[in-house]
Every structure is written in C-alpha cells, then in structure tokens.
C-alpha cells in the first residue's frame, strides 16, 4: 500500500466517523444479530465496526441519503425457489444427466461438447426453464430498491429469469451469464425468441432444437457456456454504474467466478458494501482475517439465509409494508 493510498483510507474512515457522529442511533434492531461474528463475540472490533457501518446504512436509506444502490446476486438467492445450484456436480440435476454418459458434469455447459452432443443440455434446459419456479422474497427485496428509486442495476449470475418475474425492469438487470429469454443458432447465428425453444422442448417435446434456416445448427438459449464470452451488456454500463455507487449489496454468491466476482472492487472506497450469504466470500473474508483491527470499515457481512436476512433488513429500512405489498400479501 502506498502512502497515498493510506492517506485516502484515513480520509474515508474519518468521513465515516463524522457521518456516525451525526447519526441518531436507534435502539438495537433484530438485524444486528446477523452481523458476521456476532454469535461469537458481539464486543469484538470486527462486530462493532460492522454494526456501526450497518447503523449508518440503515439511517442513510431511511433519510434517502443513499441514492445509488447496486445489487450483485448469485445462485444462493434462488435456492429457496427450488432451483439447485446447477453448477455443482452434487445436485440432482447432474444426476439426471447420468444416462447421457457425460465425460464430466460441467460438460453440459461446454460449448465444444454441446456442438458434438446437445442432448444433455436440452434435457437440462427442459428442467431449468424459467416459468417452473417463482421468485423468492429476496428477489422482491431487490424489487423494493427499484420501487424506492435506489436501484442503479442488478447484476446477476443467475439464468433462472426470476429477477424479471419479480418485476424488476429489464433495463435494470444485467444477466451476466445470459438468459433463456433469447436464443440463437450456433452455426448461422439466426436469432430466436426464447419462447421458440421453450415450445419445442416443453410442448413438442423434441430432444434437439434445430435451426430452421441452416438446418444443421442447433438453437441454443443465450446463456453463457464455459468457453464463451459474457454478453456485451455486462461491460456496457460498468463504468457509469459503479463510479458513484454508494451502496453495494452482494447476495448469495461465493464470488469465485470471474469476471463477475471482480465487480465488488469497482465501487469507490466511500461506498458501503454489504454481503448477505451463508459464508463470507471475496473481500469480505478479509474482515475475519487476523489482520483486521480497524475500528471502522465500510464492509458488513450479514450471515444467514438470504430470505431471512433480507426480510429483517427490509424491516430495518422501513420497507416491510411495501415488500408485503409488492409480494401481493396485502
Ligand atoms: Zn442456423
């Protein structure tokens, strides 16, 4: 770290302290019990630091001082919808593909393998097709950011389309790993609506969806396979989205898959970052490293089930009524 960076760090911390001094601290809220490390030692520096930052975030959301929030989401937010983490070889989805004698589990998403043998992927697509699942409470929590005019963008690793189903505007969603909404022929690149593939697979029950233009290509939904580049939209808004983001919420992702995982580092140092996950991941692991001694930093790890944590957090933001309304429970 250069002296310049140290200087910058000090300034950000000083700024946080000043903000906290202005803060009218509310009585301890249920949400603080989710702060990472709270169960072990609520008086530890790491818990205190996160708690104070969280207080600040809650206050700033309530007073509308937070204006530009970005949400990064991964497979963890869709688990309660019944969608298993299909990239994990341990899930039932892969077991169903045993009959196809895949050379290795992930081959189903390998573009070279798909060209040779598309049947396993089409079988999987039939099972995963959006419409078979409903959005979770966490998806509606993201929608609540939109309703409060705070959502700059939701970058998602998920291909289940549940963000769209939850009513998040298409413009505000970046499906980093693609989606089933559109498809194209892998040979002549002719575009097809996702519905075309859906009808073929789910109603006509074909094993392979073939291109009607060139007749020797397969029509593949626009989800990103291993060996394929991310959709152009993934990069289009990055610079303008992240440069003045003041709240970054990361949910249900282990932050291991790049370039998606690198997004967390694009925000300015003054941006508050909150991870909601079962385990700390990416830069949030640093909070629990032996070197952590800062009284205050901008990161908060809320440990637990996404739906449970987002429910309590929405409550802390004063959004409970609104969230229930969005979900049609009022
Ligand atoms: Zn074609």
Could you list some keywords that capture this structure?
330 residues, alpha/beta, SIR2/SIRT2 'Small Domain', six-stranded parallel β-sheet, three-stranded antiparallel β-sheet, 12 helices, 14% strand, binds zinc ion
Describe the protein's topology.
Blueprint: H1 3-22, H2 45-62, E1 69-73, H3 92-95, H4 111-116, H5 119-128, H6 137-147, E2 151-156, H7 162-165, E3 173-175, E4 178-185, E5 191-193, H8 194-203, E6 219-223, H9 233-236, H10 238-243, E7 247-251, E8 272-277, E9 299-303, H11 306-317, H12 320-326
Parallel strand pairs: 1-2, 1-7, 2-3, 7-8, 8-9
Antiparallel strand pairs: 4-5, 4-6
Helix pairs in contact: 6-11
Bound molecules: zinc ion.
Verbal overview:
This protein is an alpha/beta fold. The chain folds into 2 domains: 21-78 and 136-176 and 233-326, TPP-binding domain (Rossmann fold, 3-Layer(aba) Sandwich), CATH 3.40.50.1220; 84-132 and 178-223, SIR2/SIRT2 'Small Domain', CATH 3.30.1600. The chain has 12 helices and 9 strands. The strands form 2 sheets. It has a 6-stranded parallel sheet with strand order 3-2-1-7-8-9, covered by helices on one side. Strands 5-4-6 form a 3-stranded antiparallel sheet. The longest helix has 20 residues, at 3-22. It is elongated. The termini are far apart. The structure holds zinc ion. Zinc ion (ZN) binds at residues 185, 187-188, 190, 211, 213-214, 217.
């Amino acid at each position: 770290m250069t002296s310049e960076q140290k200087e910058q760090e000090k300034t950000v911390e000083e700024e946080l302290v000043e903000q906290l001094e202005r803060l009218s601290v509310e009585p301890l809220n249920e949400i603080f019990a989710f702060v990472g490390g709270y169960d072990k030692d609520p008086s530890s520096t790491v818990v205190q630091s996160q708690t104070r930052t969280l207080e600040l975030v809650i206050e700033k959301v309530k007073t509308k001082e937070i204006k530009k929030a970005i949400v990064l989401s991964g497979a963890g937010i869709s688990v309660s919808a019944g969608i298993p983490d299909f990239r994990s070889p341990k899930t039932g989805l892969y077991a169903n593909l045993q009959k196809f004698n895949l050379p290795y589990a992930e081959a189903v998403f390998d573009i070279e393998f798909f060209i040779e043998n598309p049947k396993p992927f089409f079988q999987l697509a039939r099972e995963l097709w959006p419409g078979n699942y409903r959005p979770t409470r966490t998806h509606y929590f993201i929608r609540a950011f939109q309703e409060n005019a705070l959502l700059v963008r939701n970058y998602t690793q998920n291909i289940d389309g549940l963000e769209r189903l939850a009513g998040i505007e298409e413009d505000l969603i970046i499906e980093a790993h693609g989606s089933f909404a559109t498809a194209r022929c892998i040979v002549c690149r002719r575009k097809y609506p996702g519905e075309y593939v859906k009808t073929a697979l789910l109603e006509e029950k074909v094993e392979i969806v073939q291109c009607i233009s060139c007749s020797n290509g397969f029509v593949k939904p626009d989800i990103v396979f291993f060996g394929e580049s991310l959709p152009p939209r993934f990069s289009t808004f990055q610079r303008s989205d992240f440069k003045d983001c003041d709240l970054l919420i990361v949910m249900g992702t282990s932050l291991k898959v790049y370039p998606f995982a690198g997004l967390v580092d694009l925000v300015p140092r003054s941006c508050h970052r909150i991870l909601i996950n079962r385990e700390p991941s990416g830069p949030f692991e640093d909070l629990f490293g032996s070197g952590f001694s800062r009284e205050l930093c901008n990161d908060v790890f809320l440990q637990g089930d996404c739906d449970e944590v987002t429910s309590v957090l929405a409550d802390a933001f004063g959004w409970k009524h609104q969230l229930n309304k969005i979900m049609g429970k009022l």
